[in-house]
Amino acid sequence: MASNGFLNLGTIDVLVATFHNFGTVAIPANTVVIPDPANPPTGDFAGGVIVPLTTSTIDGSFGGVTVESIPPGRSGPVRLMGVSVVTAAAAINYGQNVQASLTAGFLGQVAPCAAGTAQLGYALAPAAAGDILPIFHAPANNA
User: Fold this and answer.
1) pLDDT at 30 over 70
2) What residues make up the domain containing 32?
3) Which H, E and C letters describe the chain, residue by residue?
4) Within a domain: 2
5) Nearest-angstrom CA–CA distance, 75 and 124
6) What is the domain count for the chain?
7) Mode of pairing for the β-strands spanning 32-35 and 75-81
8) Confidence at residue 104, expressed as pLDDT on a 0 to 100 scale
9) Model confidence over 64-109: pLDDT tens digits?
10) How far apart are CA 142 and CA 47, in angstroms?
11) Quick one: pLDDT band at residue 60, thresholds 50, 70, 90?
12) CA-to-CA distance for 38 and 58, rounded, in angstroms?
């Protein structure tokens, strides 16, 4: 076990891409985000990302996790592949599929994945609500 309390997983490939926050408030670091359908990439800006609010906004969407805070009107890095550290919105078991939380007060966090919902990845440790949790990105459409 590493000094941070998480397992040492060795080398894992990471994919980080730049996305734009077209919103009016900053998106904090380690927040689950999805593409903003109203703001596709253009010649001037990277594609937009938003914090998912409802099931309809995440069905079929890829998810990522902000690497650092993205201020409004600015672009920033979003991890799409590899391991991210996020906050658990509910109790999560080791190895459990996780999705973006759709519960008010827990948006931008992860929750156990429901049937028919876009999966963000797998929990790499058990967690209680409010705990910091490492996840492995493994997007899928959870049947």
Assistant:
1) yes
2) 15-141
3) CCCCCCCCCCCCCCEEEEEECCCCCCECCCCEEEECCCCCCCCCCCCEEECCCCHHHHCCCCCEEECCCECCCCEEEEEEECEEEEEECCCECCCCEEEECCCCCCCCCEEECCCCCEEEEEECCCECCCCEEEEEEEEEECC
4) no
5) 29
6) 1
7) unpaired
8) 85
9) 999 999 999 999 999 998 899 999 999 999 999 999 888 888 989 9
10) 25
11) low
12) 14
pLDDT at 141 over 80: no
Nearest to 51 by CA among 43, 72, 41: 72
The two structure tokens encoding residue 81: 């592949």
115 lies in some domain: yes
The sheet that has 83-87: what strands, in order across it? 83-87, 132-141, 118-123, 97-100, 110-112
